[in-house]
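Narrative of activities, Objective 1.

The group set out to show that a structural description can be obtained from nothing but a protein's sequence at a throughput compatible with the screening campaign. Below is one input-output pair from the validation batch, recorded exactly as produced.
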Amino acid sequence: MKLAVFDFDSTLMDGETIDEFAKALGLQDKVASLTAKAMAGEIDFFESLIMRVQLLKGLKEEEIIKIAHNLPFMPGAKETISQLKKLGYTVVCFSGGFRVATSYAKEQLGFDADFANILHAKDGILTGLVGGDMMFNYSKGDMLQRLQHILGISKEDTFVCGDGANDLSMFEYADTRVAFCAKDVLKKAANVIIDKKDLKEVLNYVY
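Output recorded for this entry:
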């Protein structure tokens, strides 16, 4: 058995989920600026997540569900996941974004499990609060170690793929580390760098 872990935003999905939510409030530029700084490692991920989600307060839950179900997937995402599963990989998504998007993507793309955060809503309206599995800079690495232990999968048989600073922690525990159309901070920790926006390119580096 082997394990493949993908980031969601700007990896399995072509864009940033929270930036798309912010469009509905006319706050895309403000949120996108915070997202970019977090992905470049310029500000703490947890702090940036809290700040960005607070800006979403007041959005209708039904509106974010609609947006989340219409996000564009990265070219080659479905084909790549299908091929990895044929090769015997368990395919998982770790996202510092939101389960409202990743759980739907799981149905559409066919990966095995998703770990992400949950936007808190009350009476159908976002409260500006958030909780979940992937709140901190270290969350992905922490979850990866736990999954490896449960599944009995070694670092040698682990493949990870992401684009931003909050993917760094999982890179530490995988022998194949793919920086996909990534920020410089992640490229420095990778042993595979792909700058072509086609996820099928990663298949050249799996066995």
